[in-house]
Structures are given as structure tokens and as C-alpha cells.
Write a structure and sequence with these properties.
Shape: globular
CATH class: Alpha Beta
Helix content: 25-40%
CATH topology: Spore Coat Polysaccharide Biosynthesis Protein SpsA, Chain A
Largest sheet: 8 strands, mixed
Structural class: alpha/beta
Number of helices: 8
Order of helices and strands: EEEHEHEHEHEEEHHEHH
Radius of gyration: 16 Å
Number of domains: 1
Distance between the termini: 40 Å
Length: 198
């Protein structure tokens, strides 16, 4: 079972005021934390990003960087996932945004354990909130995503409505949920730094 890891690092982070992918936490960029989480659970890693950030990734030594496929540039995470599915042949695709530095490799490993032949997505529901961007998607979903994008429907929920999903709870993953927190602004980042110092 070949799994391609997708680091979603294309947002321009307007709320944060700077690209979140290159925020430094414990001497690593946010996106590097995401790569580390996916590395041991995937066969190949790809970063999906905005054209304006591609050179910055290259300066940091990254090679597998994709921009959203035309004509879907800037159309959100579904466009990024679709781009990688088109460019990299795998059976499953593990997706992780670059702004969840508390995520762990063990959680991704546990999610892989819920992959079965009869499902097309493994998506956590953490404290009642679904997490479709920290998830696993089968290659079969590529055509569904392509249809959604072509119709101008960029919502991840529209994909989940059309495929067989194995929802996984925090109890099944044996977590309390804080690992799934997005760091969306400077206030959240400061809290993250404060927690790290305790």
C-alpha cells in the first residue's frame, strides 16, 4: 500500500500576518514539523504551496513542491489534494496542514490502522468536530474531487458527502484532542510557546 504524504502549506495566512509554513517553533519551521509527522507513515512526501512561497521552500532545500493545478489555483485545500493526486501515483494520501505542530506520528499511524478496502477516507471527529484536513484519502476520491472543483464547489464537506468515510473518534485514537489544534494567529502561537516553556 503506497501512501503519499501531503503537507498543505499554501495558505497566505492573512490572520497570522505572515506565512504560517515558515513560522519557527522549537528551531523548526511549522511545515517541517508536519513533514516529520508524516515521514514515518508515508512512502513519499509532497508540499503543496502558493506560487509566492515556492522559492522560499526551494531555498530551504525542498524538492517536492507542487502548486495548485490550473485552473484551480488558490481554490483551497481540495485543489491542493487534487494536484498531488494527479501528479503522484499512490493508493492512499495522508493529508496534514502545516499549522498543527502538536500533531504526532503515532496519531497518523493509528489513523492508518482504520484503512479498509471498503472505505475511501479516514477522517477524525475530535470533540464533535470533524477534521478533514488531517485525514487519509484513497486514490478513488480523485475523480470526485475533480468533479467538485470543476463545478466550483471547493468545500471539503462536499467530498465527504460523496465518498465512504470511516469516522474516527478521539477515544479510538486515544487522544484528548489538543494535537488537532490549528495555530491560526499570533495569540494562539503565543499560547503554544507558553505551553512549550512549562
Amino acid at each position: 500500500m503506497k501512501i503519499i504524504g501531503i503537507v498543505l502549506a499554501g495558505g497566505m495566512s492573512r490572520r497570522f500576518g505572515r506565512p504560517k509554513a515558515f513560522v519557527v517553533y522549537k528551531e523548526k519551521y511549522f511545515y517541517e514539523w508536519a513533514k516529520e509527522v508524516l515521514r514515518s507513515n508515508t512512502d513519499e512526501l509532497v508540499i503543496v504551496s502558493h506560487p509566492d512561497l515556492k522559492k522560499e521552500f526551494e531555498r530551504n532545500g525542498e524538492e517536492h513542491i507542487e502548486e495548485d493545478a490550473a485552473p484551480f489555483q488558490g481554490k483551497g485545500p481540495l485543489a491542493g489534494i487534487y494536484t498531488v493526486m494527479k501528479a503522484y501515483e499512490g493508493e492512499w494520501y495522508g493529508v496534514l496542514p502545516c499549522d498543527t505542530p502538536k500533531m504526532t506520528p503515532l496519531i497518523i499511524k493509528k489513523m492508518k490502522d482504520f484503512i479498509t478496502e471498503d472505505v475511501e477516507a479516514v477522517v477524525p471527529i475530535i470533540n464533535g468536530k470533524y477534521q478533514p484536513l488531517i485525514a487519509m484519502y484513497h486514490k478513488r476520491t480523485e475523480s470526485i474531487i475533480g468533479e467538485r472543483l470543476a463545478e466550483g464547489d471547493y468545500r471539503v464537506s462536499s467530498l465527504l458527502d460523496r465518498c465512504r468515510v470511516r469516522w474516527v473518534t478521539e477515544k479510538e485514537l486515544e487522544v484528548d484532542g489538543e494535537e488537532f489544534e490549528n495555530i491560526n494567529d499570533e495569540t494562539a502561537f503565543q499560547s503554544l510557546l507558553d505551553d512549550g516553556e512549562r
